[in-house]
Amino acid sequence: MSMVFALIGNQNCGKTTLFNQLTGSNQHVGNFPGVTVEKKEGVIKQAKSATVVDLPGIYSLSPYTSEEIVTRDFLLNTHPDAILNIVDATNIERNLYLTLQLIELNIPMVLALNMMDEVVQSGNSIDIEKLSEGLGIPVVPISASKGEGIGELVDMIMKVGEQKTTPKRVDFCSDEVHRAIHAVAHLVEDHAQAIGMPVRFAATKLMEGDEPTIQALKLNQNEIETLGHITTEMETALGTDREAALADMRYTFIEKLCATCVHKHAETREQQRSVKMDAILTHKYLAIPIFLVIMAVVFWLTFGLIGAALSDWLSMGIDWVTAATDAFLTNVGVSAPIHSLIIDGVFAGVGSVLSFLPTIVVLFFFLSLLEDSGYMARVAFVMDKLLRKIGLSGRSFVPMLIGFGCSVPAIMSTRTLASERDRKMTILLTPFMSCSAKLPIYAVFTAAFFQENQALVMISLYVLGMVVAILCGLLFKHTLFRGNPVPFVMELPAYRLPSGKTIVLHMWEKAKDFIRKAFTVIFVATIVIWVLQSFDFTFNMVENSADSMLAAIGSWIAPIFAPLGFGDWRASTALLTGLSAKEAVVSTFAILMGVSGPSELAPLLSNLFTPLTAFSFLCFTLLYMPCVAAFAAIKREMGSLWQALGAMAFQTGVAWVVAFGVYHIGMLFV
């Protein structure tokens, strides 16, 4: 029979890396909190009959955040055959806090002690046998990033799962806490057994005042009052509150256990290096300027030195294929409408977007380096103070950071936020972060109008998105979302050299997504655009696209954009088609201008825009409502169509106001 194992651990302990090693999955590995939002499943390579479920990274089983709720519900309701608890050996004292809570569930369990290679290299040691004996569960030392110990771990988890070997001990308490927990356990034992909840787990959760457990056990009023008396007596005897008493109980046990089996002579090399680097990279005054300089260098390399050259080469290749196809269609005598559809529609639309693939890949190469090295976690830490001024915590920076890649996973990742207020506010602000789909638009317009200051204009757009998000956050803080953000607690991972495999996988995933979008959404959009710009409302083919259906539709909405400096129907049409996918803005211009590549498109844009109106257009493109996929994500996460429509209207309104301001202020200096 197939067995199911739950993979659980703190954030940044190497959990997703281990999942990849076990399953051969191409899932991206990130080195900052919040990368795993939903559980993911995979069949273990060495045991085809076993499935491992990668659950969100958490620090406890208290149901405060969405991640903790997902993990806790899975363990209590799904009843996996065994728990695979991964622990960072370099931070074993902190990581074992979750381990003790998992043991209380009395589910078969194996502890994977990760990063043991770093422990050994630093001259430290951990007595595996003593640790296993003290916890009452098997312990297997591994190095997930190097693939060491994975075979032994699979053998052990299969053995424990098949034999249903539960932990040898679930009692870690002493003195007043011991008496209180056992009194509560005796009080609720029949209730817990009736719903299949481990008695020890139920008792400790009741002691912590865990509301979901109280509701699940269906205690009567007398039992609730008795529980209150037991808790009050314990708090009075210890002189502390119940949650602190239980935390002290667990940490006291961990300290005693580690004193006998963990031998530390010094911090690991990675930890020592991280302390020195953090003195500069998280400096009170230098941290943000350093971050801006790093991002400026990334943009310069992406759009100037490396990415632009690669895109030019790919563009020349696409032009050659287009010309060859054009000649072939002419020679075989394909009809004019079909010839136009293939060359002026598909090749012009898809080809103009596809040429930016190298730019996208290069950008995510650098972002992956920053993310997997651990630097982006520091940026979230540094941004916490700034985000608090607009009513958010540093945890909201993680979805915003993901938003620079794509708004859809960024919006979905807001599930990691504990507060509904913080979650909805972050959803509304995240689309202002410039997603990668807008890069082709920026690249074409900056090449056409700002060639000497291309990187500077790019940076200004990214900064503008963040500034607008800050201003809107301040507005929300005093209107729709009054109140304070939840506290931000995050463990900073040690700086580590990213693995080449991880970076290549990350780049491949982005390239695959971009290519899939180019040959699905954008392919369909280009055909629709070609039909609309080639025919009038009586479906007669037009010689001049100004007489087409598309021109008429664009002309109807063009007056809305006239105050922003770009009232031409082609510009308004491009913005409209951009709702399917932002890359479609470029493909629309390419089709309407009758060109097949960005190198040909850039000079023709000067007929529609001046440098000022081009920048106004870029500002509107940056800020207006995201694509339909992002809209669907917003609707799903907010749980209301009207709230999602309101978010779209608000974002587009902000885009109009900002572009209006840019254009009219700019006119004063022209």
Fold and architecture overview:
This protein has two domains: 3-163, 3-Layer(aba) Sandwich (Rossmann fold), CATH 3.40.50; 290-485 and 498-669, no CATH class. 64% of the residues lie in helices and 6% in strands. The chain has helices at residues 15-23, 66-78, 92-103, 116-121, 128-135, 150-163, 175-195, 199-207, 211-217, 221-238, 242-261, 269-281, 287-305, 307-331, 336-354, 357-373, 375-389, 397-403, 407-412, 420-429, 439-449, 454-477, 500-518, 521-534, 549-561, 569-577, 584-593, 598-604, 611-623, 628-638, 641-667; strands at residues 3-9, 40-44, 47-54, 82-88, 109-114, 125-126, 139-141, 262-263. The strands form two sheets. The protein has a six-stranded mixed beta sheet, with helices on both faces. Strands 6-8 form a two-stranded antiparallel ribbon. The longest helix has 27 residues, at 641-667. The termini are far apart. The model is unreliable at 26-37 (pLDDT under 50).
